[in-house]
Every structure is written in structure tokens, then in C-alpha cells.
Design brief:
Helix content: 25-40%
Structural class: alpha+beta
Largest sheet: 3 strands, antiparallel
Strand content: 35-45%
Distance between the termini: 41 Å
Number of strands: 3
Length: 73
């Protein structure tokens, strides 16, 4: 942790003692990895707790309809 704070000081030109680092609580989210022609989606209930399976979605009308169906179910 001390090394992280020191690196932060160097990068930001500030003292880390001026900042409070806190743990972030993650609510349910859907992660989307967008690439050329296809995207991969994954739902998470909490940090590092995936829900369901990875879904590949094509960037076409049928793929977007599939994504809508995934979101509704």
C-alpha cells in the first residue's frame, strides 16, 4: 500500500495523505467488452462474482435482439 501511495504522489504531484482511499462496494453490473464485429457480455452480482455465463453478441440486428433478450431474462 505504501508503494502505491508513493507512486500516486509521483504521478499526481500531490501527497497521498490528502486523499482517503476507500474500498468500493460494487452493485450488480453488466460488463461489456466491445470488439470489431462482436461483443462479450457478463453479468456480475458483486465484485468477482459472475452471474450466468459469458454471452457473445454480434453487431447486427439479430445480435442486438439477443442482447435485449438476455437483459430481460
Amino acid at each position: 500500500m505504501e508503494q502505491l501511495l508513493a507512486e500516486f504522489d509521483l504521478a499526481m504531484g500531490a501527497t497521498a495523505s490528502n486523499f482517503k482511499i476507500r474500498e468500493c462496494v460494487m452493485e450488480p453490473v453488466i460488463g461489456v467488452d466491445v470488439a470489431k464485429g462482436i461483443s462479450v457480455i457478463q453479468a456480475f452480482l458483486r465484485r468477482n462474482e459472475p452471474y450466468g455465463i459469458l454471452e457473445n453478441i454480434t453487431h447486427e440486428e439479430s445480435g442486438l435482439n439477443d442482447w435485449e433478450n438476455c437483459l430481460m431474462n
